[in-house]
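Possible regression after last week's pipeline update?

I re-ran a chain I had predicted before the update to compare outputs. Posting the input and the new output here so someone can diff against the archived version. Not blocking, just want to make sure nothing changed silently.
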Amino acid sequence: MYQIKPYTLQRALQLGVKVKPSTNPSKKLDVFDWNKNYITSIGATGYKDFPTYIEDNGLEYALKRRDLYQKRHQREKILLGDKWLGSRSYYALNLLW
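New output (post-update):
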């Protein structure tokens, strides 16, 4: 089971959502609004995220990985426009990266 990092908890607070370990075994987190309504599940368990890279490889390497992640998802952000806000990608980027 994925251990939620302080970085992710802080980001969730900034976004106004709550996170819990996912009930879906292939995902890291379940995202909820403050009324405890389920929003989505994010983060594939087979991949690392920004705080995990910091722990395993250091901040410099983690920053490079975050930059690459953001570049990979930039096109989706542009294509979806306003629909991107609140999407699975939106929460993954803002909570895990």
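Follow-up from reviewer: compared with the archived run. The first strand starts at residue 18 and ends at 21. Marking as no regression found.
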